[in-house]
Design goal:
Blueprint: H1 9-20, H2 27-36, H3 44-56, E1 60-67, E2 70-77, H4 79-98, H5 100-124
Helix pairs in contact: 1-3, 2-3, 4-5
Length: 125
């Protein structure tokens, strides 16, 4: 089982928010982003605990900064590092569970979608 499939829905949601962010985010920024997507039931402590778990798993980097006489953390998702680590693991898991044809089918699907996106971008120009 890959680390990716071991991630829970909240962890994947926070990674998606961090991936789209231009700068590192605080736990409060993450909470606000999750709440703006319609999840008003999530608590700050849940977001903080979840993002800290992502740091422990090696998906997110944590930076400390001085803030109002104390310290706060900012979080950043290193997308390239995650891709380098997760894609081979994901492909191997897919190969183990569904066989080589599944890996080939996924590769064809990704190529087709990418080629379609590139064609759409060219048409729009």
């Amino acid at each position: 089982m890959t680390q990716w499939t071991q991630l829970g829905p909240r962890e994947r949601e926070l990674l998606a928010v961090l991936r789209r962010a231009d700068d590192p985010l605080t736990a409060r920024d993450l909470l606000d982003a999750v709440a703006s997507r319609g999840d008003d039931d999530v608590a700050y402590t849940t977001v903080k605990r979840t993002v800290d778990r992502l740091v422990e798993k090696g998906f997110v980097e944590r930076e400390s900064e001085r803030y109002r006489g104390g310290t706060r953390h900012r979080y950043r998702f290193d997308v390239e590092a995650a891709r380098e680590r997760l894609i081979p693991e994901f492909a191997e898991e897919l190969r183990t569970v569904l066989g080589e044809p599944a890996v080939e089918r996924l590769a064809r699907t990704v190529r087709t979608e990418r080629d379609g996106d590139e064609a759409d971008a060219t048409t729009q120009q």
